[in-house]
Design brief:
- By secondary structure, this protein is of the alpha/beta class.
- 48% of the residues lie in helices and 15% in strands.
- The chain has helices at residues 12-22, 39-49, 59-68, 79-88, 105-113, 123-139, 149-157, 183-187, 191-194, 204-211, 214-227, 265-273, 287-290, 304-315, 319-335, 343-354, 363-383, and strands at 2-7, 28-34, 53-56, 75-78, 94-97, 117-120, 144-146, 166-173, 234-238, 244-250, 255-259.
- Helix 14 (304-315) packs antiparallel against helix 15.
- Bound molecules: manganese (II) ion (MN).
- Manganese (II) ion binds at residues 148-150, 219.
Length: 384
């Protein structure tokens, strides 16, 4: 039995993780769960998986959920303290970090320091606090297993290759719904257009990030930390069919990649069972249906977010945090219909240009940089 705790159990990663677990109930026990405000779904999950405790967004949701579950013996926490409780859950072996944003940094670090292996789906944590997280993971001898489909593909491609150097990582991108668009055309897209991803079923934040290639920028930085590779050896390849989920080129020129149907349950199950591959009830890849796979260069002149991510990675220190936090704030503003899609990279750039660079940021520096970036974005939007 492996005991699993999940942050973000009602989101896209969380629900698919529980789907995988429900296919292997004899192998896993769910010991704790956290969600934000979707307590109706959380109640269903509690009744099905019987965790020892859960955490929700605030006291309001905690009280409501307590009413709904009066017949059960379940402890309910809330807020950041609740996330930290789930992270350090004394019964869990592994934490699945399915929450979105920098909110994931403190719980991820808490879990690492408590000796939990991490199934990492919260890329913002590595983007902002990569040096701290990787160092702590090493010190506490815990594994960080990527859940992000591209990083899982790279991780799978590296099995048995410990003695070999990575020459190049080929990080694939679907290109999102606006692939091939000019800037003029991008100016007119609506929030509804942004929220349609052709291949992957994801939460709103990741879907918006994907549409502007900002998600890919975050993933370049995530790959850099996970696999210890500099940005000059991480190449983004637009691959609209989303069949090759990423690949590694070795020094001899061999390219090893992972292919499959675009189904997040495959990388999720791989992280849960690593290194085993038991049967999974999911759609299998049919190459005859796929027929043709195509590859193209990303258009970084139109999709400036990706170029800014490379710039943030070059500058290092707290600059990736500015990139990420300004983006998080801008995405919220887009969802509130306060800004247009093309303003997102502009707001990120403005915050990056003005920041005082801290070369080796502590966790406190990272959190204060987050504050700086969010305030900078809000000020810019007010001015306009
Ligand atoms: Mn991804």
């Amino acid at each position: 039995m492996k005991n699993i705790a999940i942050l973000g159990s009602t989101g896209s990663i969380g629900t698919q993780t529980l789907d995988v677990i429900s296919q292997h109930k004899d192998k896993f026990k769910v010991t704790s769960l956290s969600c934000g405000r979707n307590i109706k779904l959380l109640e269903k999950q509690i009744r099905e998986f019987m965790p020892n405790f859960v955490s929700v967004y605030s006291e309001v949701e905690a009280k409501e959920l307590a009413d709904m579950t009066r017949d059960l013996d379940i402890k309910i926490f809330h807020g950041m303290d609740g996330l930290l409780e789930v992270a350090r859950d004394s019964e869990s072996d592994m934490l699945v970090t399915g929450i979105v944003g920098m909110l994931g940094i403190r719980p991820t670090l808490e879990a690492i320091r408590s000796g939990k292996d991490i199934a990492l789906a919260n890329k913002e944590t590595l983007v902002c606090a990569g040096s701290i997280v990787m160092e702590e993971a090493k010190r506490n001898e815990v594994s960080i297993i990527p859940v992000d489909s591209e990083h899982s593909a790279i991780f799978q491609s590296l099995q048995g290759e410990e003695q070999n150097r990575i020459n190049k990582i080929l990080l694939t991108a679907s290109g999102g719904p606006f692939r091939g668009y000019t800037r003029d055309k991008l100016e007119k897209v609506t929030l509804e257009d942004v929220l349609k991803n052709p291949n992957w079923d994801m939460g709103n934040k990741v879907t918006i990030d994907s549409a502007g290639l900002i998600n890919k920028g975050l993933e370049v930085m995530e790959a850099g930390w996970l696999f210890g590779v500099g940005r000059d050896r991480i190449e983004v390849v637009v691959h609209p069919e989303s069949i090759l989920h990423s690949a590694v080129e070795f020094d001899d020129g061999a390219v090893i990649g992972q292919l499959g149907a675009p189904d997040m349950r495959i990388p999720i199950q791989y992280a849960l069972f690593y290194p085993k591959r038991p049967k999974l009830m999911a759609k299998k890849l049919n190459l005859f249906d796929v027929g043709i796979m195509t590859f193209e260069r990303p258009d970084i002149d139109t999709f400036k977010g990706l170029a800014l991510a490379y710039e943030a990675m070059d500058k290092g220190g707290n600059v990736p945090t500015v990139f990420n936090a300004a983006n998080e704030c801008a995405v919220k503003l887009l969802l509130d219909r306060k800004i247009s899609f093309l303003q997102i990279p502009e707001l990120i750039k403005s915050a990056m240009d003005d920041v005082k660079i801290i070369e080796r940021p502590t966790l406190e520096d990272i959190l204060s940089t987050e504050q700086y970036a969010k305030e900078h974005v809000l000020k810019d939007v007010e001015k306009a």
